Amino acid sequence: MIAPLCRRGAAAVALLAGLACGPAMAADRAALPPYSFAYEPQGVDERGMWMMADEDERILRTSSFVIRDEELNAYVRGVLCRTVGEDRCRNVRVYVMRIPQFNATMYANGMMTVWSGLLLRVQNEAELGAVLGHEFGHFEKRHSLNGFKNKRSVSDVLAWLGMVGPNAGLSASLAGYVYSFSRAQETEADLIGIQYLASSAYPSAAAPKVWSRLMAEQDATAAGRKRKVRHSYAAGFFASHPTEAAREAYLSREAAKYADAGDPGAEAYRKGIAKWLPQLLDDQIKLNDFGGSEYLLDQLAASGGSADVTFARAELYSQRGNPRDYVTAAELYREAIAKGCDRPEARRGLGLALLRTQQSDEGKQALRSYLEFRPDAPDGPMIKSLVGN
Amino acid sequence: MKPITLIIAAALAAAPAYAGNSLIPAGRTVQVAKSAMAVTPGSEWNKLGRRPGTNGEIWTLDGDKLNRVTFYGGIAQDTTLFREVDRKNSPLPRFSQTMLLTDVPKLLENSYRVALGSALFTIDQMEPARFGGVDGIRFTYSFVAGNQEVQSKGEARAAIVKGRLYMISYEAPALHFFEKNVAQFRQIADSATF
Ligand SMILES: [Zn+2]
Q1: CA A163, A106, A176: angle at the middle one, nearest 5?
Q2: Nearest chain B Cα to A382, which residue?
Q3: Å from A383 to nearest chain B CA?
Q4: Regarding beta strands B121-131 and B134-145, do their DSSP bridges make them parallel or antiparallel, or are they unpaired?
């Protein structure tokens, strides 16, 4: 059994019914207490939890979901270390996971997982540090497991796909069988997380922004699926989504108290994840979430989006596949190519979109150019059959 | 290689028996997936009692985690390949008549990504191939599914006939098992008629 101690994001349970503002904090400065090393678990329960976490870590180390790129791992770890400080950082092993949802988890033994979907959703190092600092807060405060809930019922489709078995292990937790902390512990982790941020070179004002954008993304997802939008930013703020809304509110208040300045590291962040951005985008747009994906692409475009972002948007539209979407997609593929997108798939996408907007000649021309760019294309024979002779 | 294969077999073959399974004899033509699709298997197969969706059917030789043939019998406009897993929070993509054959692998890919919650899925190859007497597509793919983290391989044949998608796929652990029975799958796919 795997027991991530924290889970948030789209699937998070309702939290913080009454908005307690956390412990009274020294309002002036964010001085962190010194960190004690070499902590050993105390008592039967805590030792048991550490053993479970150790076992989980053994499984996770060989998991195919772990992204093994040393550069990326070092970069993410670096952000954690710059947020919580070198002393604290030394006690943590960070694993970046290829899971396209917003999440990070902290285990009792010092193992932290950072999901690739989080990397796509934060805009700078300070925001990433805010989330990682929150996770570290659970570790520093030695939050113990507070019971668990099964978020998803077992369906026979999962059984069919081989998801359910006697050895339910790592991927069971990936599918949403997760443990969670108590509300009070989540709040405490939020408050210590923002304290790390305030005492670091990063500005604490970054923390609430993660949550306000997450809410907007959830709204966009709902709207894209023709479901009722649940958030209201003007009035009745806490009515429907207390978790993210409450977090955003009390983190804003804390940040205002700290009133610390600093460079959030947006440019450094873009560089840090640049190599992985195409993969992160690809995983996102294949989630069948048009509204949420488009919102994320808008955010990325607004913060200086690249040709990769335009290409991803083109793919998103052609996947939705309404007749007008192919017109939009063709324009976007052209724009991506003009911006310097050198992926042969941009020509492939352009060609297929044009074929469906009754621009057969131009479409075939684009497909031919795809085959020239990529003579060994895995779908080469299929594309050739569309081009004809 | 052998020990690993044995471990996988031990882990996967222990699937519980399901009620309603039945034997498909060799050499007899059978209708599949409650549809107009019919195949004539060259060897004996087990048909699972549970269906992945209304237009679906699963056959296996040694248990569906070791080898699995899935029939998709005429997926209609705006319907999913198989039953929704979590319709509200992660709905599956739907088949559309505007799709070209080149879109079919991605429909399967995205359906699996959503249903499995796994981003580890890649389309490896696709090429034109006759299927059920019409122009269709043959494609191969790899994915990681299931709590054993087994690397699986898949191969499928598909065609769109009168606005409906017909497809047969074969999936098995990449190590040893895929190669072992892929010929039996290809024979079934070759025998398909609509
Ligand atoms: Zn937490």
Answers
A1: 25
A2: B127
A3: 8
A4: antiparallel
Ramachandran sector of residue B30 (left: φ over 0; alpha: ψ -120 to 50; beta: rest): beta
- The tally of domains found in chain B comes to 1
Residue of chain A with shortest Cα separation from B16 = A165
Q: Are the C-beta atoms of residues A196 and A136 closer than 8 Å to each other?
A: yes
Q: Which domain holds residue B25?
A: 20-191
* Distance from C-alpha of A179 to C-alpha of A279, rounded to nearest angstrom: 28
DSSP string, A259-301: -------HHHHHHHHGGGHHHHHHHHHTTS-HHHHHHHHHHHH
Write down the pLDDT at residue A143: 79
**Secondary structure (3-state) at A200:** coil
Token pair, residue A363, equals: 């479409």
Tell me how far apart the alpha carbons of residues A251 and A233 are, in angstroms, rounded to a whole number.
16
Residue of A nearest to B141 (CA): A378
Structure tokens at A94: 């960070």
Q: Which residue has the tokens 């994906």?
A: A293
CA dist A337 to A342, A348, A349, Å? 7, 11, 11
In a domain, B56, yes or no: yes
Residue-wise pLDDT tens digits, B60-107 = 999 988 999 999 999 999 999 999 988 888 899 999 998 999 999 999
The minimum CA-CA distance between A263 and chain B, rounded to whole Å, is 33
The answer to whether residue B83 is domain-embedded is yes
Whether B64 is covered by a domain: the verdict is: yes
Instruction: Tell me how close the Cα of A133 comes to any Cα of chain B, in angstroms.
Output: 26
Report whether A181 contacts A15 (CB < 8 A): no
CATH number of the domain bearing residue B111: 3.40.1000.10
CB contacts of A165 in chain B (<8 Å) are: 11, 15, 65, 146-148
Least confident of A167-181, A217-231, B60-74, B85-99: A167-181
Check: CB of residue A216 under 8 Å from CB of residue A292.
no
Task: Using CB atoms, pick whichever of A158, A170, A383 lies closest to residue B85.
Answer: A158
ipTM: 0.90
User: What CATH code would you report for A271-387?
Assistant: 1.25.40.10
DSSP output for A10-23: TTPPP--SS----S
pLDDT of amino acid A54? 84
The domain spans of chain A are 41-258, 271-387
- Res A33: pLDDT: 74
Q: Which residue has 């390949």 as its token pair?
A: B81
Nearest-CA neighbor of B106 among B88, B94, B117, B116?
B94
Residue B9 lies in a domain: no
pLDDT above 70 for A216:
yes
Residue with the larger pLDDT of the pair B113 and A144: B113
Asked if A169 lies within 8 A of B147 by C-beta distance, the reply is yes
Distances (CA, A) of A305 to A117, A312, B25, B135: 17, 11, 58, 41
- For residues B122 and B141, is the Cβ–Cβ distance under 8 A? yes
Distances (CA, A) of A311 to A26, A163, A282: 48, 33, 10
